Amino acid sequence: MSKNKRNGFLAIHHREGSFSNRWIDYCKKNNIDYKLVDCFDHDILKNLKGAYGLMWHWTHWDFSAQIFARQLIKVIEDSGTKVFPSFNTCWHFDDKISQKYLLESIDARTVDTYIFFKKQKAIDWAKKTTYPKVFKLSAGAGSSNVFLVKNFNEAKDKINKIFNTGFSQIQRSYFLKERVWHFKRDKSITSFLKILIGLGMQFFPTNLEKNSKKERNYAYFQDFIPNNNCDIRIIVIGTRAFAIKRLIRDGDFRASGSGKISYNPTEIPKDCIRQSFQYSSKIKSQCMAYDYVKSINKWVLIEVSYAFNQKVYEDCQGYWDIDLNWNEGKINPQNFMIIDFLESLKE
To answer: Would you report the helix, strand and coil content of the chain in percent, each value rounded to 5?
Structure first.
């Protein structure tokens, strides 16, 4: 723990490789009194006595956090202690069904989305709709749980499965194909070793797969937006926005996970930046990533997420402020988070 500079301390749940690494570095460099806590302890509320704030980077890969993180954050906030991510920031994280209703409630310009909780209603709709459509699971990051359905028969197969045996959040064959694709692109020892791990996963499920719940009893479809060669991801943290352009690989329709990224700020539509600031204000989020695709002559929102792969954004060339002024220079998103969070404690 560092030298005390204010009444109480900042509590940080530390997980190696997460946002917490840089949060801890910031506290050490700026003489911020902090304490490492474990949000999985049964007496976490007792351990937070004296804390003026809690920072916890939890992810969709952590099946234990998925069970109770939102609920714990709500309880802590209601007790008067601020949290990053706040409940407003994360209650809809890795939950596309929740996101549909959230984005509709703030009048976001989104891709048309159709959700059914009765099998027959889903089939009746599938008979009448146009194709192709995009079928998604509500949970699961990246593009592993996103499928292009080209006709009624394919849609019916997805509907039958999700209302019966259900889908695993972990698509083993997809991850193996991804590792092969990355090896062809990178030709590195690391990417080759990942193929071997992927082969092992075909026979031995990971703890994550064994503990993740099956996705069942709903059908989630979105309109397919054709003729896109990329998507745009905007991340808003407070009054700053930074962005990347993700290119779609050959023979696919998804940009997430391609690893083909442009960091050129001139390629980012100002309209997307402006909309993202507006959406963050309405959601009251501390940090949010927004994914856009172009539909005819306008950019539409697909989904949102408070968490992201921090390594991807280390090559961003700067950020826009809320007035859309460009600020050149290397960015540190985790520092943005903790600076804003500590500032909010003064309010």
So the answer is: 40, 25, 40
